[in-house]
Each structure stands twice: as structure tokens, then as C-alpha cells.
Amino acid sequence: MSLSETIAPQLPYLRRFARALSGSQASGDAYVVAMLEALVADSSLFPKDMPTKPAIFHTFLKVWDSVKVNATREERVSLADAPARHLEGISHRPRQAFLLVAVEGLLIEDAATAMDCDVAEISALIDQAGQEIAEQVATSVLIIEDEPLIALDLAELVTSLGHRVCATATTHKEAVAAFSKHQPGLVLADVQLADGSSGLEAVNEILGSFQVPIIFITAYPERLLTGKRPEPTFLINKPFQPETVKAIISQALFFENKAALNAA
User: Where are the domains of the chain?
Assistant: First the structure.
């Protein structure tokens, strides 16, 4: 397969990444064009010993670091684009790590490859991004989980990012009651609960009265990915990587919160 055939299917995702990283589609596309021009001049810039997606982002970030697109901050960040404005508030490297994992869906190892660093550094960068995002959209979190150790792990992840756990529920009834009492800004939900009740049914009941971002963390993703609408926006399989949970928490709060602001 030629280099152009390898890259072409990935260009929509690269444009999305470039837009989020730079602040506008115009400047993002300019960086993508700069990468393509660099590859035309020297195809060896593309690392053939990497999986395709990490290799493309690796090449793009090399160009990003070496080429300055002529655009002012006002041109890069539209006043109508709240998420872009707030992304500007996240430090450079943490923003890259956050977008690669939370938005582009790269595994932690692949994101480390793309950014020319190790897994420990990527984890630290995602933590930093999460903490900087929490400074903008810190909230309370309801955990719906019947396994005490998993609930404890999730609570530690939440608080490490600067958010607050308002309650932990182990059954459908407890979950609905806790949400009604605390009205948190985020829900982390398992599907199968302690008494045989359903976290999915609890979430559906909650969403009947309130709009709140939900992250399902489950060993039974097939119960959610049925092809029927609505399907969950945020879904993490058990066993999970802590860095992935942190990135998705930040993604859910950051983009859901900004979407609500734009709609207001």
C-alpha cells in the first residue's frame, strides 16, 4: 500500500485533531497541509515501524512543533467556539495527550508512541490536563457501582482530578435517590448492580428528569451497544486503565459542559 493510500482514510480524524489542537478548522487544516507537503518532500518522515494511526499523529506533531502557521489567537479561536477557547487554557503537551486519548481514542501506549514519550509521561500529562479542565468545570460525581474496591478506585480517580464524589450507590433505588438528593454534574455507572437491578435502568430514569453526562464503566458493553438508540456516548470496558477513565471524565465534563453553554 502506498503512503497516500495509508494516510487518506485517516485524514478526517487528523483534521478533527488539528482543529481541536489549533482552535479553528482553517488553522488546523493549514497544519495538515504542511504535514502532507513535508511528506511529499521527504516520505521518510513517516515512521513505517509504527501502527498507522500513531504514526500519522506522530508525524503531524513533529510538523506541529516545527512549523508556525500564521494566524493570530483571535483567528485561531472563534468567539463562538467555547470548547476551543477553553482548550486554549490547557497547557500545550497535556492538551495533545488529552485529545489523543479522550477524543481520538488512542490507547495510552499508542498515544505515548505518537508523542515520543513513555507511558508514565502520558499518564502524567493526562492527569495535568484533567486538573486544568477541573479548574474550569469542577463538579460533583455520583458513582453507581456495587463492587466496593472498584467504587473506591473510581472515587480516588475522581478526586485526583479535582472533582468531588457526592455519593456512591449500589442499587437502582439508591442511585435514583442519591441523584435526586445531590443532583451531581456527572454520573459514573455500572450496568449490573448488587441486588440484580440495572444501572442502565437507573440512568434512564434519571435522564427522564435531568440532563447530565453519563459514563458507563462495565464488563457487559454488549448490553449497551445494541444498535438501538440511544446508545451511550461514553463507555469504558472493565477492567479499565486509570488513565483512560481520567481522560474520559475530562472529555465528558469538558465537551458536554461547553455544549450546554453554547446552547444556552
Answer: 3-131, 138-263
DSSP string, 178-244: HHHHH--SEEEE-SB-TTS-BHHHHHHHHHTT----EEEEES-GGGT-SSPSS--SEEEESS--HHH
Rounded Cα–Cα distance for residues 180 and 165 (Å)? 15
pLDDT digits (tens, 9 = 90+) for 103-151: 898 999 999 999 999 999 999 999 998 888 888 889 999 999 999 999 9
At the topology level of CATH, where does 3-131 sit? Butyryl-CoA Dehydrogenase, subunit A; domain 3 (1.20.140)
pTM: 0.73
> SS3 of 112, please?
helix
Q: Name which CATH class applies to 138-263.
A: alpha beta
CA 210/CA 80 separation, integer angstroms: 26
Q: What is the DSSP letter of 228?
A: P
Give the neighbor-by-neighbor strand order of the sheet with 186-189. Answer: 164-169, 140-144, 186-189, 214-218, 234-237
Cα–Cα distance for residue pair 149/92, rounded to 1 Å: 34
The x, y and z cell numbers of residue 216, run together, are 458507563
Helix (H) or strand (E) holding 164: strand 164-169
Q: What is the percentage of the chain residues whose pLDDT exceeds 70? A: 85
**Measured between alpha carbons, how far is 149 from 224 in angstroms, rounded to an integer?**
23
What's the CA gap between 204 and 177, in Å, rounded?
14
Supply φ then ψ for residue 48, to 5 degrees: -80, -5
CA distance 264 to 259: 9
Whole-angstrom distance, CA of residue 138 vs CA of residue 257: 10
